[in-house]
Automatic annotation (TrEMBL):
The chain crosses the membrane at residues 67-85. Belongs to the DRM1/ARP family. It comes from Gossypium barbadense (Sea Island cotton). Pfam families: Auxin_repressed. Residues 7-27 have a biased composition (Low complexity). This is Auxin repressed protein.
Amino acid sequence: IFSLDEASSMAMPTSPTTPGTPSTPVSARRDNVWRSVFNPGSNLATKGIGAEVFDKPQPNSPTVYDWFVQIFFLVQLFACMLAWITL
């Protein structure tokens, strides 16, 4: 069927190599789309407002923590009321 020369010249196929990690071409990359949203200096609508609004809260105004505690308390209160009603 096969001669010795033909059989020895037939090599086993090699395993395929693992492809590399795909990457986006440099030309297709864009700037961060959120940069203009979270960078107050680049937002033209707020450029003239400044620190007097954002960095100086009104006296005795509630903080985020105050709002959180109040909402957490109300949720717990409603949960207790609901449990009491369903008894």
